[in-house]
Amino acid sequence: MEILSPNKTYTYADYLTWQFDERIELFRGEIMKMPPAPLRMHQDISSKLHGDLGSFFKKKACKLYAAPFDVRFPRRKEDTKDEQITTVLQPDLCVVCDLEKLDRRGCLGAPDWVIEILSEGNTPKEMREKYQVYEESGVREYWIIQPDTHSILPYVLENGIFIGKAPLLEGDDARPSIFPDLTLDLAYIFSE
């Protein structure tokens, strides 16, 4: 990583050539190191969600993916070449319903639902930038899970802008707005 210039704008084409020990994402051409291995609580939440969501989407047209899974966000719909894409994120979990966005390397374009589980290494800058990328790209629903407070901050895209919904707390049954027939037991999700 030391040989890469902090003043250069990198693309997905560059990203494909790198072989680092640490995980990275690209935010508008800037390299962002991902936090080191997540804590056990993060992994427990991710595993439980993956199991519940996997069962729900098993017979649905939508596909569920867990990190590491590259999601490429073109700035404009026509900017689909590797040399044009400057944002590549790896959401903790994402659901893609437009299967034409999927290719052998991941997803090209916004997933329908993105779930990020906060870790100690997440920075406010990273959180703000991901929020902006997901909103601008058209992610229909975005959940930020806060393991420390056993809560979820859900955002739903309305007219191109994320609208924050009431926080979901540990004792609640959580229903994503875009999948109202899905119910998640948060007492189970946050249990130790």
Concise structural overview:
This protein is α+β, with helices and mostly antiparallel strands and 192 residues long. The protein is 21% helix and 28% strand. The radius of gyration is 16 Å and the shape is globular.
Give a written overview of the molecule.
The protein is α+β, with helices and mostly antiparallel strands and 192 residues long. The chain contains four helices and 15 strands. The mean pLDDT is 90.
CATH topological fold name? tt1808, chain A
Number of helices: 4
Mean model confidence by pLDDT: 90
* Helical coverage, percent range: 10-25%
What's the end-to-end separation, in Å?
36 Å
Which value, in Å, is the CA radius of gyration? Answer: 16 Å
Give the domain tally.
Answer: 1
**Run of helices and strands:** HEEHEEEEEEEHEEEEEEH
The CATH superfamily label reads tt1808, chain A
Global morphology: globular
Oligomer: single chain
* CATH level-two architecture: Alpha-Beta Complex
What's the main sheet like?
7 strands, mixed
Low-confidence stretches: none
Number of strands: 15
CATH class: Alpha Beta
Beta fraction of the residues? Answer: 25-35%
